[in-house]
Amino acid sequence: MNVVRTVKRSNMRTPKNKVEPSATATAPAVGHMLQTLRLSRSLTLDHLARISGVSKSVLSQIERDRTNPTLGTLWRLAEALGVEIEDLLRRRKTSAGINILDEHNTPILLSSDRRCTIRILGPLELAGRVEWYEMRFETGGALVSEPHEPGTIEHLTVLEGQLEVESGRQRERALLGLGQTARYRADQSHAIRNLFGPRALAIVIVTSGMLAPDTTRTAKASPAARFERCKR
């Protein structure tokens, strides 16, 4: 699944196409934590901008919770501050020990053509082992990915509309309807497309090669797709 790259901290991947925060999503309120970490290290906005590669104006907007930073931006800030990304996204737990992430705090990526919206539902500490995403497609939206790590399997369930999935060197394809699930190898080129309806919604779970059963890895994959490049 090519959504974000966290290098040493995880195997989540970054899309090749430009993605940007959803304009309709509320900022994830990481500003206070970012400011606290910055000040604890006696860093000015100028200094943090230089070492992170994130502009001073963007840093200022993030600290004031006026923009929704991408995970790529959060990764650069975490690297510069010497912390984990989850430290920037830290949330209080309830007295019962239940960690709740509000909808408006869920990281959202939006393709440059605004036809593919990706909500990153899995916790960052599981990235590279198990990842799960909610994906919304407008008409003509497509997510195209290069092969991932050997043994990676993706599991896609359609919750609304129809999606065409494609996978493998032979570009095997299948049309999925409401409630249908495709399991397919993601260590080969793969794609997901909404070619038919006004919108489609799916949940995608990605399991690493270490977690995938040997019989699943070696079996012929169902035609399916996952994404990296958002395009019409």
Describe the model.
By secondary structure, the protein is an alpha+beta fold. It folds into two domains: 29-103, lambda repressor-like DNA-binding domains (434 Repressor (Amino-terminal Domain)), CATH 1.10.260; 106-231, Jelly Rolls (Sandwich). 20% of the residues lie in helices and 27% in strands. It is built from six helices and twelve strands. The protein has helices spanning 31-40, 45-52, 56-63, 71-81, 85-88, 214-218, and strands spanning 19-20, 108-111, 116-120, 130-138, 142-145, 153-160, 163-167, 172-176, 181-185, 190-193, 199-207, 229-231. The strands form two sheets. The protein has a seven-stranded antiparallel β-sheet with strand order 1-2-3-4-11-6-9, with no helix packed on it. A five-stranded antiparallel β-sheet has the order 8-7-10-5-12, with no helix packed on it. The longest helix is centred in the first third of the chain and has 11 residues, at 71-81. Residues 2-27 and 212-232 have low confidence and may be disordered.
